[in-house]
Specification:
The chain is α/β, with parallel strands linked by helices. The chain is built from 24 helices and 26 strands.
């Protein structure tokens, strides 16, 4: 790991570049010195430490990390700063010097701040770099020192889960450490696919070990995912958007058959029935009244749910009985089903099932919700961004609304920290983010907004490639990869490790690290010393290791030891996994939850007071989605579309990697039953469309998705032809910008479409 001369191939162990795949893995990077090129990577393998210990398992990278060689040396890497010379969005640029690029960006920041104020500046959500010294936090620090910018909160990933979980539990730390899954007897992977999207390095390994230990594993998902095939005893296909209906029917079975953990509910919950209602809401509908249909006349029975979910009522009854009796049990909620209309409801409904079954606060159980591990967990944003002088924040998903009508937005639009925004967004500085176009909803709408230079007056994009979003930049800044810069990372959501990310290659051409670009801008803006605090990137890594040592890992080696041992990772074995809510379970009076009642709130007084029972009910309810097979829109667009996370990409990162395209070709996945009805043959070009846009791409038949549903794996780079028809298959051409009512989170998975055979 030092810069000594390498005569033979050498192996350097480093963290996998942190693109928000759901994992933090270890790579073994094979390098050698070339007399012309200098140090080069020859191949990449993964964690070669011995053993498969449950307490301290290997951090094995998937094919995305192992294929990074092709991304690192891709011929389309951005090499030089560039400025736009054609219409915005056309992707026509001219090479310029760093001086001109930085002077232009600094000048535009000063101009917009002087004309409109700091709140007209904006750094969008983006997860393309998460190694403490890469990614959007470097720009947030810059903006905050400059006087601030419009802030954001929440995430695209789990927007509804983030907001809903505390309404029932008062915290996001509702999960046990994953080693405790081995104590479970029953595990439901509900819309959860750790074999492909990870959700913590080794989550699939722990499920495998739990199954070997005797746990029965069920996967409920519209598609037979890799997780269903490799980890589950049973796959249960379900119609997208109806998960809350099945959960409600399971509760119906548990209530009517006496399978509720009554002792736990009576002492640890409120709102189960009228005897538990808060005084301020006396007479309001309780949870059990909704489930039994005592107010609306519609019992949430398995027969009722079967018509909605396409899951046979016998299956719903059996799964309810198994979950209620094969205890302790884990109901793990994936994130796709909460990125839908009313996505908050499925989160609350899953938490309610965990609660009434008594699986909260016990080893082998699981409270559901976001389920961060208890006590201290990973830190994604250790690099200090400082306080933002602009106090107003918007939900991250509503940035396009703030471009169009920022001055009209207030608390009803999710604004916090201010009664009203005082600006529309006028300048965007996007770092490691493809969320301006590709990953945001309704791509054609976003493109129309960004093309209009009277709306956003200046856009700077900092990235490795000319992505779909980068095509809309006015100034394009070439960023290093994480192999060309210093960094450090710890676990993604779970884990007890710290992984070093040393600089092992020289920056390509004129590219610079995110940190260095922002530091150079800070110098031009007059606060360079304040930005760097006198540290270079390596010294910031030392600073970060000190912070980890102070907060989580007092035994953590220093940087010199990391380098000398070339292990790349420090990991702490977990021999006694922590369990969320154990103190509350043992004594709810002495250890109350951080909810108004101090208990698990099956009925939420806070939600009741919002006065919107149709969209934000006080108890978890199934609500028909605004685009649904049961609505009038189904006559024109009869198929539901989903976009799963594929091993081809991390969101949109890696879409241009040929090895991954060969292994996982980007195709519209369609059930042969739906294809036959439309006269479509396997491999045909198909036209996939709705009112928001059109895609033409090849299809692939599969029986691993239920009829009535098509699957277009998310993240393909938007590539419109001269007619505006996308020819690559970016699913957000079809998605709506509409948001969930409570969390103001993305509902991008709520999509109805039609598919036809396309002309050649």
């Amino acid at each position: 790991m030092t810069r000594q001369q390498v005569n033979e191939e050498n192996v350097i162990r480093v963290g996998c570049p942190a693109h928000n795949c759901g994992g933090r893995c270890l790579l073994a990077v094979h390098v050698k010195d070339d007399p012309v090129q200098g140090r080069v990577i020859t191949r990449i393998s993964t964690d070669d430490r011995p053993g498969d210990s449950v307490a301290d398992p290997q951090l094995r990278a998937c094919v995305r990390g192992r294929s990074y060689l092709r991304r690192q040396y891709h011929p389309d890497r951005l090499k030089y700063p560039m400025k736009r010379i054609g219409p915005r969005g056309e992707g026509t640029f001219q090479r310029i010097s760093w001086d001109e690029a930085l002077d232009t960006v600094a000048g535009e920041m000063q101009r917009v701040k002087a004309k409109y104020g700091s709140s007209a500046l904006f750094v969008p959500y983006g997860t393309g770099g998460y190694s403490q010294l890469t990614g959007s936090q470097t720009a947030r620090r810059l903006m905050n020192l400059f006087g601030g910018c419009l802030g954001i909160y929440n995430s695209y990933s789990w927007g509804a889960t983030n907001i809903a979980t505390p309404y029932i539990y008062g915290t996001l730390k509702s999960g046990n450490q994953r080693q405790d899954w081995l104590n479970a007897k029953y595990i439901i992977m509900w819309g959860w696919n750790p074999a492909e999207m990870r959700d913590g390095t080794n989550s699939d390994f722990f499920i495998k070990k739990a199954r070997e230990n005797g746990a029965r594993v069920i996967c409920i998902d519209p598609r037979m995912s890799m997780s269903a095939v490799s980890l589950a005893d049973e796959w249960i296909p379900i119609r997208p958007g109806t998960d809350t209906a099945m959960m409600s029917a399971m509760a119906y079975v548990m209530i009517t058959e006496g399978l509720v953990d009554t002792a736990f509910v009576e002492t640890h919950c409120i709102g189960f029935d009228q005897s538990q209602m808060p005084a301020a809401a006396a007479g309001a509908e309780s949870y059990s009244e909704y489930i039994l249909g005592q107010r609306d006349g519609v019992p949430k029975s398995p027969d009722w749910a079967a018509a909605l979910t396409a899951v046979p009522q016998e299956t719903i009854i059996r799964i309810a009985r198994e979950y209620a009796t094969m205890k302790p049990g884990v109901l793990y909620q994936g994130y796709g089903m909460q990125r839908r209309a009313y996505g908050e409801q499925v989160v609350l409904a899953g938490c309610a099932l965990a609660s009434i079954s008594g699986n909260v606060g016990v080893s082998g159980g699981w409270a559901s919700g976001l389920a961060l591990q208890p006590e201290d967990g990973p830190s994604w944003n250790l690099f200090p961004t400082g306080g933002n002088p602009v106090k107003a924040q918007i939900p991250c998903f509503l940035w396009s609304e703030a471009v169009l009508r920022g001055k009209e937005m207030g608390p009803a639009d999710g604004v916090i920290g201010a009664d009203k925004l005082d600006n529309n967004i006028k300048l965007i500085y996007a770092v490691a983010s493809n969320a301006l176009i590709n990953q945001h909803a309704n791509i054609n709408r976003s493109a129309r907004i960004l093309r209009d230079e009277s709306l956003v007056e200046f856009i700077v994009v900092q990235d490795n490639f000319l992505t779909s979003s980068a095509r809309f930049a006015d100034i394009l800044l070439p960023a290093c990869t994480q192999f060309e810069a210093w960094g450090v990372e710890d676990g993604w959501k779970y884990g007890e490790e710290v992984i070093l990310m040393p600089q092992i290659l020289e920056p390509l051409a004129e590219s610079k690290s995110d940190f260095r670009i922002c530091a150079d801008l800070a110098e031009r803006l007059g606060f360079g010393e304040a930005y760097t605090e006198g540290r270079n990137e390596r010294e910031w890594v030392e600073w970060a290791l000190d912070r980890y040592r102070e907060t989580r890992f007092p035994e953590l080696p220093d940087l010199a030891t990391f380098e000398a041992t070339n292990q790349g990772v420090y990991s702490r074995p977990v021999t006694h996994p922590a369990v969320a809510f154990t103190d509350f379970r043992r004594d709810p009076e002495r250890h109350p939850l951080n909810t108004p009642s101090g208990k698990i709130e099956l009925f939420s007084q806070r939600l009741h007071e919002k006065g919107n029972p149709e969209e934000i009910p006080a108890v978890p309810k199934y609500i028909q989605e605004w685009e649904s097979p049961f609505g009038p829109e189904a006559s024109r667009y009869p198929l539901q579309a989903i976009g799963h996370h594929t091993l081809h990409r991390v969101h949109s990162t890696h879409d241009n990697v040929d090895w991954l395209e060969e292994a996982f070709p980007h195709r519209l996945l369609i059930n042969p039953i739906d294809a036959k009805y439309r006269g479509i043959a396997d491999g045909d070009l198909v036209k996939l469309y709705n009112d928001r846009g059109t895609i033409i791409m090849p299809c692939q038949f599969t029986n691993q998705i239920m009829p009535g549903v098509v699957d277009l794996p998310q993240g393909g780079w938007w590539t419109p032809d001269e007619d505006g028809v996308d020819r690559r298959g970016a699913i957000n051409v079809l998605t709506s910008e509409r948001w969930t009512p409570l969390a103001f989170g993305t509902a991008q998975h709520t999509i109805m479409v039609q598919v036809e055979r396309a002309a050649a």
